[in-house]
């Protein structure tokens, strides 16, 4: 809603209520009607409040600055609180005057009663106009909502004033005073409710209904592992929402951004006028037991690899065995020190493991390996592969030497409809031909479907 659309109803409401004050003061003074005068005073305070609400709403629409980074919406809330407090004061004063008149015996002037009744009828028409004017924007502006409540209070109080003057004009003068007392109680109730609601907002209480709805959204977003630190505050008609979502530690930045955008979109569909800030944190997912052990082992300096992790459950407890690879130049004492550290770490994190046995192996120095692309060998391997009718595509061939062994790694594609047994038989033939052509080698053929 634009600024002019938000301010125009408040301005028209102010002009309308000023006209009511003029008519009711004239009618109340001429008829000596406390009920009509009470309603006029109520209208006077309502006019002052409406002007203040208009002014504070205009201020609240200023954009955020260095001193008000969340904007100026709280000024509008302060204006609403002022309106509620002012109504509360007026209701107390009118109640006091009504009690005095009840025991003082003052009566209204019957010759001007018609003017008093006419002023209340005019006020009722103005109140209906104001309620229709303000109802449409009350959900977009807390100030408009406050003024809408004032209009309802005015309408209700004017009906009471009308009934009181009408009854008094028939000779039952106490009707005017009693209607004023009822009016005071009604105004006090509306005032207290408005002050209470604005106090909650000024204290930054999270709006219960919206907070619960946002939590429900966060629990039903695909890819979201959880959330924490959900914070909400309401400033004027605007909601500020801050939340940290938990995502898989394996997700990439693009995936994380996509999930965050989905969350933001779902919340904004629920709360139109909202500013949403989403942080995301990786959630370390539950790893298989063997991977947990591997992570613990690799934290120890001097361990270059770990494999054959086996845990066995027996009636005496769980026994764990694992093989580690260390620098072959280490002494036995140095290697044993590493195993003691590993066993200690495992015992600390998994106290239910009764015994851990660590097998020590010398690591393979990958640095000693050498990639070889001998044109002769590559040509021979290529000829063998090209001569095989079942191979549909050759992706890569790597030849290298490590610790005195020659390795040949081949990636190639076969028909995807052939069985594993058929492919395995064909690979065995290929390996035999390559060995016969280039000499003893460790050959690994990785088949892929095409």
Residue windows where pLDDT falls under 50 for at least 5 positions: 366-371
Q: How many β-strands, per DSSP?
A: 10
**Which architecture name of the largest domain does CATH use?**
Up-down Bundle
Helical content stands at 55-70%
What's the mean pLDDT score? 76
Largest sheet: 4 strands, mixed
What CATH calls the topology of the largest domain is Alpha-lytic protease prodomain-like
Overall, the morphology is elongated
Element pattern in H and E: HHHHHHHEEHEHEEHEEHEEHE
CATH superfamily label of the largest domain: Cation efflux protein transmembrane domain
Strand percent estimate: 15-25%
Strand order of the largest sheet: 7-8-9-10
List the total number of helices.
12
- What is the count of structural domains? 4
Q: Classify the secondary structure makeup into a structural class.
A: alpha/beta
Distance, first to last CA: 59 Å
Name of the level-1 CATH class of the largest domain: Mainly Alpha
Query: What gyration radius follows from the Cα positions, in whole Å?
Result: 43 Å
List keywords for this structure.
Alpha-Beta Plaits, three-stranded mixed sheet, four-stranded mixed sheet, 57% helix, 21% strand, 10 strands, 450 residues, Alpha-lytic protease prodomain-like, alpha/beta, 12 helices
């Amino acid at each position: 809603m634009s600024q002019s659309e938000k301010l125009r109803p408040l301005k028209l409401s102010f002009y309308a209520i000023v006209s009511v004050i003029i008519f009711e003061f004239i009618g109340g003074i001429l008829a000596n009607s406390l009920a009509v005068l009470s309603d006029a005073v109520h209208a006077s305070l309502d006019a002052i409040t409406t002007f203040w609400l208009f002014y504070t709403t205009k201020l609240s629409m200023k954009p955020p600055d260095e001193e008000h980074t969340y904007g100026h919406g709280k000024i509008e809330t302060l204006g609403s609180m002022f309106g509620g407090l002012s109504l509360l004061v007026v209701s107390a004063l009118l109640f006091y005057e009504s009690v005095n008149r009840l025991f003082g015996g003052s009566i209204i002037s019957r010759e001007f009663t018609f003017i008093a009744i006419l002023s209340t009828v005019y006020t009722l028409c103005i109140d209906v106009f104001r309620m229709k004017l303000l109802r449409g924007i009350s959900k977009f502006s807390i100030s408009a909502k406050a003024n809408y409540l004032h209009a309802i209070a005015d309408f209700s109080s004017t009906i009471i004033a009308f009934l009181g003057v009408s009854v008094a004009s028939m000779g039952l003068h106490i009707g005017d005073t009693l209607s004023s007392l009822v009016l005071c109680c009604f105004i006090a109730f509306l005032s207290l409710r408005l002050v209470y609601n604005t106090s909650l907002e000024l204290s930054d209480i999270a709006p219960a209904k919206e907070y619960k709805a946002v939590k429900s959204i966060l629990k039903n977003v695909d890819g979201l592992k959880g959330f924490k630190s959900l914070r909400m505050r309401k400033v004027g008609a605007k909601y500020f929402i801050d939340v940290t979502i938990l995502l898989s530690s394996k997700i990439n930045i693009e995936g994380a951004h996509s999930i965050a955008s989905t969350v933001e979109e779902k919340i904004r569909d629920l709360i139109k006028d909202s500013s949403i800030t989403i942080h995301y944190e990786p959630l370390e997912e539950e790893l298989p037991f063997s991977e947990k052990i591997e992570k613990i082992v690799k934290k120890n300096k001097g361990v270059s690899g770990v494999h054959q992790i086996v845990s066995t459950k027996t009636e005496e407890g769980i026994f764990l065995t694992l093989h580690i690879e260390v620098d072959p130049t280490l002494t036995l004492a140095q290697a044993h020190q590493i195993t003691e550290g590993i066993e200690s770490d495992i015992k600390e994190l998994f106290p239910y493991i009764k015994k851990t046995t660590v097998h020590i192996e010398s690591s393979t120095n990958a640095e000693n390996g050498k990639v070889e692309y001998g044109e002769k060998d590559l040509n021979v391997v290529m000829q063998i592969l090209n001569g095989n009718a079942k191979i549909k595509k050759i992706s890569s061939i790597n030849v290298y030497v490590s610790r005195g062994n020659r390795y040949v790694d081949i990636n190639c594609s076969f028909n995807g409809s052939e069985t594993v047994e058929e492919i395995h038989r064909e690979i065995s033939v290929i390996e035999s031909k390559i060995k016969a052509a280039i000499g003893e080698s460790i050959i690994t053929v990785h088949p892929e479907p095409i």
